[in-house]
Amino acid sequence: MAKTPTGKNTSGRGQRDLKVKVKSARGRKLSSTRWLQRQLNDPYVRRAQQEGYRGRAAYKIMELDDKYRFLVPGARVVDLGCAPGGWSQVAVKRINALGEKSGKSIGRIVGVDLQEVEPLAGAEFHQLDFMDDGADDKVKDWLGGTADVVMSDMAAASSGHKQTDHLRIISLCETAAYFAFDVLEDGGTFVAKVLAGGAEGELQKLLKLKFDKVMNVKPPSSRSDSSEKFVVAMGFRGRD
Ligand SMILES: C[S@@+](CC[C@H](N)C(=O)[O-])C[C@H]1O[C@@H](n2cnc3c(N)ncnc32)[C@H](O)[C@@H]1O
User: For the segment 69-121, what is each residue's pLDDT rounded down to a tens digit?
Assistant: First the structure.
C-alpha cells in the first residue's frame, strides 16, 4: 500500500479526504511548514507517489499532451530542465522510446538540467546549464539531428524578488524558443513554462509567426496559486 512521507496510507475510503496538518517546529521556517503541509495534502503529489512518477510535474505534460497529442510514437524529443525526470518518464512511454509498442516507431529523448538526473531507461540525460555559451550546440550534438518536440519546464530557484524571477523565467523561455527554431522539424512542437499572461508580448508575436497554432494553457495540475502557465506552439513553419 502506498504511503505518504509521514507513513500514512494513501489508499482506502475516507483516507483521501483526511487533511494532514503539519505542526510548526522550532528551526523550521513558517514558509517551509506551509510548503510541507501543501505537499502532504496535494492529490497530485500522492498520485505521483502511487503511480511511480518522480514528481507531480509529470501530470502537467500528461495533461498538455492529452489535449494536443504531440508525444507520438517515434518522436524525437528534447526535455530542457528535465530534473528529476517526470516529464521524461511520460515522454518515454508515449514516444515508444523503449520499443514496447510493437509495430510503432521508436522515439528518442535527450534531457538536460543544471542538476544531475537519476538515469531513466529510454532517456539520455546530461548535466548542463542551458544558458551557458555553446550549450545549444552540445544538445544538438547529443541529439544528432532534428527534433519533433522541444519542451522546457526550466525554472530558476526563486530569488524572493518577484520581478527578478519574472525576468529569469522569460529569459529561460526565450532561450528555449530560439533553440527550438534551430532544431525543430517542419510541423514540430514547442512547449514551455511561461507566466500568468502566457508567452510575453514579443515572444508571443514571434511564436505566432513561426508556428501555425499558439496556445497559452494552465493545465489542471498546475497549482491555482502559482502564476505558472504553459505555451504550446504547434506546426513549426520551418527555418526558411
Ligand atoms: C520544475 S523543475 C522541472 C521538472 C521536470 N519537468 C520534471 O518533470 O521532473 C525545473 C528545472 O529547471 C532546471 N533549470 C533551471 N535553470 C536551468 C538552466 N539554466 N539549465 C538547465 N536546467 C535548468 C532546474 O534545475 C530544475 O530542475
Answer: 999 999 999 999 999 999 999 999 999 999 999 999 999 999 999 999 999 99
- Measured by CA distance, the residue closest to atom 8 of ligand 1 is 86
- In single-letter form, the type of residue at position 181 comes to F
Active site residue 60: no
97 exposure class (CB count in 10 Å sphere: 0-12, 13-18, 19+): buried
Where do the CATH 3.40.50.150 domains begin and end in the chain? Answer: 56-236
Q: Residue 109: helix, strand or coil by DSSP? A: strand
**Assigned CATH for 56-236:** 3.40.50.150
81 touches 130 (CB < 8 A)? yes
Whether the per-residue pLDDT at 235 is higher than 90: the answer is yes
Q: How far is the CA of 209 from the centre of ligand 1 (A)?
A: 27
Distance in angstroms (rounded) separating the CA atoms of residues 222 and 230: 9
Q: How far is the CA of 171 from the centre of ligand 1 (A)?
A: 14
The answer, as to whether pTM is greater than 0.85, is yes
Grid cell for residue 75 = 518522436
Helix axes 201-210, 162-183, angle to 10 degrees: 20
Longest dimension (CA), the chain: 60
Closest atom of ligand 1 relative to the 131 alpha carbon = 19
Q: Is 87 annotated as a binding residue?
A: yes
